[in-house]
Amino acid sequence: MTLASLFFLFMYIGTFTIGGGLVAISLMQQALVNRGIISAERFYNMVAISESTPGPIGINMATYVGYETAGVWGGIITTVGTVLPSLVVIILIARYFTRFQEKPLVQAAFYGLRAGSTGLIAVAAWQVLNVSVFAFKAFSESGRWQDVASWPALGLFAVLLAVNRRFDIHPLWIILSGAVFGFFVL
To answer: What is the tens place of the pLDDT at every residue in 124-135?
Structure first.
């Protein structure tokens, strides 16, 4: 891909990423994996690395994908392309929002955006779980119920979910636990 096509692709992703970085993951998967630019396995490895590095996951992913496909300039171009639409929208909202925030149409639009972004985040979470925990493809090929999931990964997910619900652990510890477990067990 050329730098210009990378810029416009990630500008498109940045334009429609309403709801945070996990929404960007969904759009990036559609744009990159479905078009054959990178493989699904490589994409989810990038997601794991981007999730464990400091900063917003959407921007980390954009930078990583850009660097992997076109070097340093690719990383810069994809990052700028991802951030630019949000920057423009935030500047416009900051300038004019106080005039329109009480309008019923504006309130309805934000209500709809919350619902839509929640759905996109749920899809992104399911896709990550589908690749990292569940193995429906292996199950469909073998027909054995033992192949429906990576049982160690599912066990770790359940334990970390239960511990987090009980003790409200910082996400950093959950990420580090998953990394250590994956390194030594999986």
So the answer is: 888 878 877 887
Please state the separation of Cα 133 from the chain's center in Å.
16
**HEC string of the chain?**
CCHHHHHHHHHHHHHCCCCCHHHHHHHHHHHHHCCCCCCHHHHHHHHHHHHHCCCCHHHHHHHHHHHHHHHHHHHHHHHHHHHHHHHHHHHHHHHHHHHHCCCHHHHHHHHHHHHHHHHHHHHHHHHHHHHHCECHHHHHHHCCHHHHECHHHHHHHHHHHHHHHHHCCCHHHHHHHHHHHHHHCC
Residue 3 dihedral angles phi and psi, to the nearest 5°: -65, -40
Q: How much is the pLDDT for 9?
A: 93
Q: Using a cut of 0.90, tell me whether the model's pTM lies above it.
A: no
pLDDT value, residue 19: 65
